[in-house]
Amino acid sequence: MKVSKAQSAENRQGILDAAARLYRERGLSGVGVADITRDAGLTHGGLYRHFSSKDALVREACARAFDWSIAPLDGAEGATDLAARVNSYLSATHRDRPGEGCPAAALAVDAARAGSDLSEVFARGIERNIDRFARVIEELAPDGGPISAEGRARAMEMLATMVGGLVLARATAAAQPALSDEILATLRDRLNAPEDKAV
Q1: Element (DSSP H or E) covering residue 135
Q2: Using CA atoms, how far apart are residues 140 and 163, in angstroms rounded to an integer?
Q3: Which three-class secondary structure state does DSSP give residue 101?
Q4: Measuring CA to CA, how many Å separate 1 from each of 43, 159, 179?
Q5: CA 164, 156, 178 angle in degrees (round to 5)?
Q6: Average pLDDT of span 66-72
Q7: Integer Cα distance of 135 and 174 in angstroms
Q8: Is the pLDDT of residue 76 over 50?
Q9: Could you count the other beta carbons within 10 Å of the beta carbon of residue 6?
Q10: Between the CA of residue 161 and those of 7, 62, 148, what are the distances in Å?
Q11: Which of 67-71, 75-79, 85-89, 157-161 is predicted least confidently?
Q12: How far apart are CA 56 and CA 60, in angstroms?
């Protein structure tokens, strides 16, 4: 049965969405082609009509995962200020739903081990996140005005703290949930403190 171009594009998008979510939930080595196609509602062989290899799918799915942005979770959808984004990122909701969240916190170690092609995908995604977050810090329009060196440095510092904190909170959640919650709360407080008091 011949599939229309529109249906083919929809199938391809379904594969990408499923892969982006599953890779963040289980890691690159924890997901097989069959898992992805089953989640997308397609057959195993259907994947290779859309992607030349599993590596090509991984790269494109990871790039797709970086379409995610640090936007408030937990019902604060209208909020755009820095504190709302920090609180959202360092929340139990984000910790407990890696498939819907930050690809850097979920897949950075996998990307570092995968080699230069995937590292390039991650570098571009992280660069975009730094830019977007620096614009929030400096209260700039999404695509307008240059970012200062100080704003860029502050964005890198905050993002690295947030990603590292989320990774630690996820790693400790099952064994010591109180410690996991403490990591999130402590970093929220530190990052939301006035700059002259923040470390």
Answers
A1: helix 116-137
A2: 23
A3: coil
A4: 14, 48, 55
A5: 25
A6: 75
A7: 35
A8: no
A9: 8
A10: 42, 21, 20
A11: 75-79
A12: 6
Could you identify the residue written with the tokens 């069959």? 34
- CA 8 – CA 40 distance, rounded (Å): 12
- Given a contact cutoff of 8 angstroms between Cβ atoms, the answer to whether 17 and 64 are in contact is yes
- Which of these, 173, 175, 136, 177, lies nearest to 154 by C-alpha position? 136
Taking a C-beta distance cutoff of 8 angstroms, is the pair 4, 18 a contact?
A: no
Long-range contacts of 185-193 (CB under 8 A, 24+ apart): 187/90, 187/161, 187/162, 188/86, 188/87, 188/90, 190/161, 191/86, 191/90, 191/158, 191/161, 191/162, 192/82, 192/83, 192/86, 192/87
Largest distance between two CA atoms of the chain: 66
Residue of 67, 108, 74, 110 lying closest to 90 (CA atoms): 74
3-state secondary structure of 78: coil
60: which residues sit within 8 A by CB, 6+ positions away? 16, 51
d(CA 88, CA 40): 28
Q: How far apart are CA 193 and CA 180, in angstroms?
A: 20
Tokens of 198: 């923040």
Q: What distances in angstroms separate CA 138 from CA 152, 155, 163, 194, one per listed residue?
A: 9, 10, 20, 15
Report pTM. 0.86
- Which residues, in sequence order, are CB contacts of 6 under 8 Å at separation 6+? none
